Amino acid sequence: MSSPITRLDQNTRRSRAVIHNGTVYLAGHTADDRSADAAGQTHQVLAKIDEMLAASGTDKSKLLNVTIWLQHMSDFQAMNEVYDAWIVPGQAPARCCGAVELALPEILVEIMVTAAL
Fold first, then answer.
1. I need a labelling partner for 9 at 20 to 30 A (CA). Which of 35, 45, 51, 113 fits?
2. For 60-95, how does the pLDDT look when each residue is reduced to its tens digit (9 = 90+)?
3. How far is CA 41 from the centre of its chain?
4. CATH: 3.20.20.370, 3.40.50.300, 1.10.10.10, 3.30.1330.40. Which one for 6-116?
C-alpha cells in the first residue's frame, strides 16, 4: 500500500513542499526583495525555508540535503556567512552549491532542501 502524498502551497506548475514517507521536499526558494545583495537574499530565503519546514511539521535540525544555486560564484562567501550562522551546529546536511543561470538576473540565490519529519 502506497503512503499518501501531501502537497503544500500548490499551483499548476509546482508545490512549495511535498511530504511523502516521512520526508519533506521543498521547492527552490528565492528572495522576495530581489534588490538585496546575496547576503540579504540568503537571509530571506532561509527564513522562507524555516517557515515552510514548520508548515510541513519539521525544522532545519532535520535537514538531509541542501542544494544552493548562485547567480555568481563571487557571492559564495557572502552566502556562506549567512548559511553557516543559520545551520544547526552538529546537524549539517549533505550540501552542494554551484553557479547557474537563474530565472531572473536579479535572483542571486536559490535554495532547495530535503528534510526528515
1. 35
2. 999 999 999 999 999 999 999 999 999 999 999 999
3. 12
4. 3.30.1330.40
Q: Starting at the earlier edge strand, list the strands of the sheet with 23-26.
A: 5-10, 15-20, 23-26, 109-116, 63-70, 94-99
Instruction: List Cα–Cα distances, 64 to 11, 27, 39, 94, 101, in angstroms.
Output: 25, 14, 23, 6, 25
Q: Which helix (H) or strand (E) holds 2?
A: none
The three cell numbers of residue 15 are: 508545490
What is the identity of the amino acid at 75? D
Tell whether pTM > 0.90. yes
Cα separation, 75 vs 107, in Å, equals 12
